[in-house]
Amino acid sequence: MLKVNTNQYKKYLLHNYKLKEPIYIQGGPGIGKSEIPLQVFKKQAIEEGLEFAQWDKTSRDEKEVMFANRDKYFVYCDQRLAQMDVTDLRGIPKLNSDRVDPMPPSWVLYFCDPDAHGLIFFDELNLAPQTVQGSAYQIIRDRSMADMMLGDGVYCIAAGNRAEDKAYTFDLPLPLRDRFSEMELRPDVDSWTEWAASESVNPHLIAFVNWKESYLYRISETGADKSTTPRGIARASRLVGDEPIGSPDANMLLSMSVGEAFATEFQGYVKYFKSLDWDQIYNHPESVRELETSQLFAVSGGLSEHFTKDSKRFDNIVNVVEHMQPEFAVMALRMMRDSNPTTFKRLGQKNKKFVDTIAKELGKFII
């Protein structure tokens, strides 16, 4: 199966969407198979001049408004097939005077309207029993649910886990697979760093993952330790919050969220971070040239944290970045940019050193 990174996944999602060609994405747990389409189609809805709505996040009253104004909404509907049976897709049989008709759920009625726009995301496809897969096959093949046709503005995609991730998957029938284009999503540090900074993930966790790239996605071989995934790292950031990264509580929260192996290795990063003399760095920025590689990862994380907490330090940060090796300068500046693009751009345009030197040398990487 073709292996793609996050940016390629986004690109081909949109390409297939415009042609209404279904796509199946496979990958390990917690790497963004379902989160990425949500981001992509939020932006797509705006481009189409439609109001974006998540089906499972709307109230009954809000759904009534959506039913009455289908032409104004782009509705994103995430259906977990592993939790469904056939009647959830086809509807409950209802006996009329001379025949039996399906009585479908409301989401099916919504998307089987000519004015409907949106996306149905069939998640956990290969975790679903084969009878449910068969019903999904009919939807993908014939664009038909409960004896009704999907609206022309409705797009279907599906996702599933890999057998090696111990997800107890079922084999997908060849006729079903043949209806999809297929990709396998692999996590990559660069794309994740951009996303993580924009989502306010703790910059020290981002810098650590850039230092120890294997910890972006690490599946425990025996299950004795918790596996690490991009989703788990984002959760760890929320749990740690404003807790000092070197505190016992932070270590415990990291262990709970992303495993003891990650937390133990992260303490090595903390040690290097604590060894930094920030007064020395800011007063004598050329001193960073003498730092070890491991310390420079900590400097990058620290500079991003300082910018996030107090953007007025931008000029001082630029003085430091000027003396860093290019790969570390780019890392720090990217984290700063992605955490607050508007402020970063405004301050960058006002800083002569940034405009005349740094932007010219590193511009293709950070702008």
Topology:
Elements: E1 3-4, H1 6-19, E2 23-26, H2 35-47, E3 51-54, H3 60-68, E4 73-80, H4 86-90, E5 92-95, E6 100-103, H5 106-111, E7 117-123, H6 130-142, E8 144-145, E9 148-149, E10 153-160, H7 174-177, E11 181-185, H8 189-198, H9 203-211, H10 230-240, H11 248-258, H12 260-274, H13 278-283, H14 293-309, H15 314-321, H16 326-339, H17 341-350, H18 352-366
Parallel strand pairs: 1-11, 2-10, 2-11, 3-4, 4-7, 7-10
Antiparallel strand pairs: 5-6, 8-9
Helix pairs in contact: 1-2, 8-9, 8-16, 9-14, 10-11, 11-12, 12-14, 14-16, 16-17
Give a nutshell description of this structure:
By secondary structure, the chain is an alpha/beta fold.
Low-confidence regions: none
Overall morphology: elongated
Main-sheet strand order equals: 1-11-2-10-7-4-3
Q: Report the biggest beta sheet as strand number plus sense, adding barrel if it closes.
A: 7 strands, parallel
Q: Identify the CATH architecture of the largest domain.
A: 3-Layer(aba) Sandwich
Structural class of the helices, strands and pairings?
Answer: alpha/beta
Secondary-structure element series: EHEHEHEHEEHEHEEEHEHHHHHHHHHHH
Query: Tally the helices: what do you get?
Result: 18
Number of discrete domains? 2
How much helix is in the residues? 40-55%
Q: Report the mean per-residue pLDDT as an integer.
A: 87
Strand content: 5-15%
End-to-end Cα distance: 33 Å
By CATH reckoning, the class of the largest domain would read Alpha Beta
How many strands? Answer: 11
CATH superfamily of the largest domain: P-loop containing nucleotide triphosphate hydrolases
**C-alpha-based Rg, rounded:** 24 Å
CATH third-tier fold name of the largest domain = Rossmann fold
